[in-house]
Amino acid sequence: MQAVLLGPPGAGKGTQAERLCQAHSLLHLSTGDLLRGAVTAGTDLGVEAKGFMDRGELVPDSLVLALLEERLAKKTSDEGFLLDGFPRNVSQAEALAAKIGDDTIDHVVYLKLDDDQILQRLLKRGRKDDTEEVILNRLSVYRAETEPLVAYYRERGLIRDVDALGTVEEVHKRLLDSITTGGAASC
Ligand code: B4P
Predict the structure, then answer these.
(1) Which uninterrupted H or E stretch holds 155?
(2) pLDDT tens digits, residue range 43-95?
(3) From CA 140, how far away is CA 150, in angstroms rounded?
(4) What pTM did the predictor assign?
(5) Which residues have C-beta atoms less than 6 Å from ligand 1?
(6) Bridge partner list, 2
(7) Tell me: the pLDDT tens digits for 105-159?
(8) In terms of DSSP bridges, do strands 159-163 and 2-6 run parallel, antiparallel, or are they unpaired?
(9) How many angstroms does the Cα of residue 15 sit away from the middle of ligand 1?
(10) Strands, E assignment, the chain
């Protein structure tokens, strides 16, 4: 299986990706984790990415694509994967389609959550980029840059809507349901 997990910041993409990857033995590819790894390691790319992440902006496509390409090169050809937090805009989606083929993605799961819940979850998580000011910026970047991907993938018949409100276990069950039955989960 080759799948994409899409949704606003704090919807639980990382949390659900871990569980789904365990359940389906998929490779978990999180661009957020790859970027934070590069920042911690102090690579040139990490140094360049850090300011964008601290402000809640998207890291330039060239940097994100370079990191992802490097990671994809290490994967075995028959290994399924779940992309978590990538693509984040239409040009990343086009780059992905050019890289792996237009019709090789099986599912795009869209985790839906309203802004109040997002703010509560992220303030509680308390990562460095989880201040109220930065979260609000990430939400407005999400609306402008990432949300158009919902229409992009819906036109291609790939979107599975999943309500991200509820316990981690409840959301996990809905997510599994949506990809096994192929239908939209309760929303
Ligand atoms: P990401 O690492 O992708 O992080 P996120 O969107 O903030 O969080 P996620 O949705 O994964 O939520 P999580 O499971 O942690 O991005 C960080 C930054 O990296 C971006 O702002 C950007 O700068 C950069 N970046 C990443 N990818 C990029 C790309 N492709 N292009 C350009 N830039 C890119 O959950 C959040 C919290 O909620 C956690 O504390 C969790 O415990 C809690 N939670 C989860 N599920 C819950 C539930 N059901 N109930 C209650 N709490 C729950």
Answers:
(1) helix 148-155
(2) 999 999 999 999 999 999 999 999 999 998 888 878 899 999 999 999 999 99
(3) 16
(4) 0.93
(5) 9-15, 31-32, 35, 52-53, 56, 58-59, 64, 85-86, 88, 92, 121-122, 125, 138, 166-168, 171
(6) 81
(7) 999 999 999 999 999 999 999 999 999 999 999 999 999 999 999 999 999 999 9
(8) unpaired
(9) 8
(10) 2-6, 27-30, 81-84, 107-112, 159-163
